[in-house]
Specification:
Elements: H1 2-19, H2 23-32, H3 37-40, H4 49-57, H5 62-70, H6 82-102, H7 113-121, H8 131-135, H9 144-156, H10 159-162
Helix pairs in contact: 1-2, 1-6, 1-9, 2-5, 4-5, 5-6, 6-9, 7-9
Bound molecules: fe (ii) ion.
Length: 164
Amino acid sequence: MVKHMLATEAIMRALAKKFGEEEEEWGLTGLLHDIDVELVEGDMNSHSKLGADIARELGASEEMAHAILCHNEAHGIPRETKLDKALFCADPLSGLITAAALIRPDKLTGLTARSVMKRFREKRFAAGVNREQVLSCQEIGLELEGFIALGLEAMKGIASKLEL
Ligand SMILES: [Fe+2]
């Protein structure tokens, strides 16, 4: 879980840089987004509500808390800001890239965006990764392959932390 949050942070930082947004704010939103997962013990109706509260207590802005809150679709809260939308698509991308890296002996090192794209199209590969959610990168103006390439580069940048 910590690695998943670090990977999401890295992708969010890269997205912030690309869009000229607040890198620290976007990165921390990624880092904190699943902070409540172990506390809610699988209760998806609490997941991300508690997380948003914890983030606020830690000093997160209302914008950050909102992005964390609405990344869990179970609440039916619409994604409004670019930060909301960025977190929503970055979250499953980290899972897809991690799964694609784990089946390779060299992990992230030789992994290309093209091969992640291939994995994306294989429905049974990492079936838990919501493809529609990854594809929602289009809502922030990114094509899938470019988004994958950005996420992959970001995760390669912290490969040793991710042990990938
Ligand atoms: Fe997540």
